[in-house]
Write a structure and sequence with these properties.
Structural class: alpha+beta
Order of helices and strands: EHHEEHHEHHEH
Largest sheet: 5 strands, antiparallel
Number of domains: 1
Shape: globular
Strand content: 15-25%
Radius of gyration: 14 Å
Number of helices: 7
């Protein structure tokens, strides 16, 4: 079974959407394997978003992800990365289809409720940033 990394961002936590995100992923058939409530530090944010460092939106991205608690999670299931990203919807919530997390709850591209790995390789990298192997059941 494949694993993927999903994180409810500070806006999703603030708005009480953690349970809704989990419900939708579990309802589809993904299994929750790890979860915690954390405050993302500047150092962790920089490591997580390293590929965006040269982009103009990088400072805003770091400021937002460190602005409040987030809920990183690991889900497992068949084609977990694709399934989770489909449930989340397009990165820009204005373009996300109704019925997706971002389509139903988001409007801003930075504050778009949830982050999800975009490939099995990024899932592995992101999971290792947030969880030790013994934290995943």
């Amino acid at each position: 079974m494949a694993k993927t990394f999903v994180m409810v961002k500070p806006d999703g936590v603030r708005r009480g959407l953690v349970g809704e995100v989990i419900r939708r992923l579990e309802q589809k058939g993904l299994k929750l394997k790890a979860m915690k409530l954390i405050q993302v530090t500047g150092e962790l944010a920089a490591r997580h978003y390293a590929e965006h460092q040269s982009k103009p939106f990088y400072p805003e991205l770091i400021a937002f992800i460190t602005s409040g608690p987030s809920v990183p999670m690991v889900f497992e299931g068949r084609e977990a990365v694709v399934v989770a990203r489909t449930i989340m919807g397009a990165t820009d919530p204005v373009k996300a289809l109704p019925g997706t997390v971002r389509g139903d709850f988001g409007i801003e591209i930075t504050e778009n409720i949830v982050h999800g790995s975009d490939s099995p390789e990024s899932a592995e990298r992101e999971i290792s940033l947030y969880f030790a192997p013994n934290e995943i059941v």
